[in-house]
Each structure stands twice: as C-alpha cells, then as structure tokens.
C-alpha cells in the first residue's frame, strides 16, 4: 500500500506538489496523464520486481 500511495502520478490530486504547480504552471489534467502514464507503468514494474527480489513474494 505504501508503494502504491507514493506512485500516484496520473492526476493532479495524486500528490500535494502536483496541486501546487497545477494552477500557476498552466497545466491541464491531460498533461499529467500524458507524462504520468509512462512513469506509472515504469514504477509498477520496478516496484513489483523489487518486492519480488527483496521479499520473494
């Protein structure tokens, strides 16, 4: 659960700094999806692989 909570990159409300730059930076929700989706997929594979290697679950 901790790993999943720290990898919320798809929405501006996923993390507090996303909301801080959302308005002043002129970003749209699609910007977060466009840049966050590849990072989310990468982190999903790295996190699952790391958990498997460390704890063998």
Q: Summary?
A:
With 57 residues, this protein is an all-alpha fold. It has helices spanning 2-5, 16-22, 29-55.
Q: Any overview of this molecule?
A:
There is one protein chain. The protein starts with a helix and ends with a helix. It is built from 3 helices and no strands. The longest helix is centred in the last third of the chain and has 27 residues, at 29-55. The protein has helices at residues 2-5, 16-22, 29-55. The protein has one domain (2-55). It has 57 residues and is mainly α. 67% of the residues lie in helices and 0% in strands.
Estimated share of beta-strand residues: under 5%
How far apart the termini lie comes to: 15 Å
Low-confidence stretches: none
Number of separate strands: 0
Average pLDDT reading = 84
Q: Count of helical segments?
A: 3
Helix percentage range: 55-70%
* Series of H and E elements: HHH
- The SS-based structural class is mainly alpha
Tell me the Rg in angstroms. Answer: 13 Å
Whole-number total of structural domains? 1
Q: Which oligomeric state applies?
A: single chain
Described by strand count, sense and barrel closure, the largest sheet is:
none
List keywords for this structure.
mainly alpha, about 55 residues
Indicate the topology.
Elements: H1 2-5, H2 16-22, H3 29-55
């Amino acid at each position: 659960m901790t790993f999943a909570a720290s990898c919320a990159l798809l929405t501006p409300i996923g993390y507090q700094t996303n909301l801080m730059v959302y308005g002043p930076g002129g970003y749209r929700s699609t910007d977060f999806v466009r840049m966050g989706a590849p990072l989310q997929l990468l982190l999903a594979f790295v996190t699952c692989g790391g958990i498997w290697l460390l704890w063998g679950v």
